[in-house]
């Protein structure tokens, strides 16, 4: 399995993280790590996901981009140090 990483900018709503995690699970991706931090703009959050799958990361990125309250999804490159951790 390959590890992938996504950076997501979203509007903060109580249900936004639940929706993101549901899409990750339903699309067959295994969550390895999640980090969420508030953005300086009002009502915004940054979410960083690391997950494993044999499937294309583009599939998950496209599905997450369609979610309400998700403003931006970017695919991040993992370094060899991040993969070993």
From TrEMBL:
Broad EC category: transferase
Signal peptide (from-to): none
Family matches, as InterPro entries: ACT-like_dom_sf
GO molecular function: acetolactate synthase activity
Entry keyword set: Transferase
Enzyme Commission number(s) of this protein: 2.2.1.6
Name of the protein this chain belongs to: Acetolactate synthase 2 regulatory subunit
Organism of provenance: Candidatus Sodalis pierantonii str. SOPE
Lineage: Bacteria, Pseudomonadati, Pseudomonadota, Gammaproteobacteria, Enterobacterales
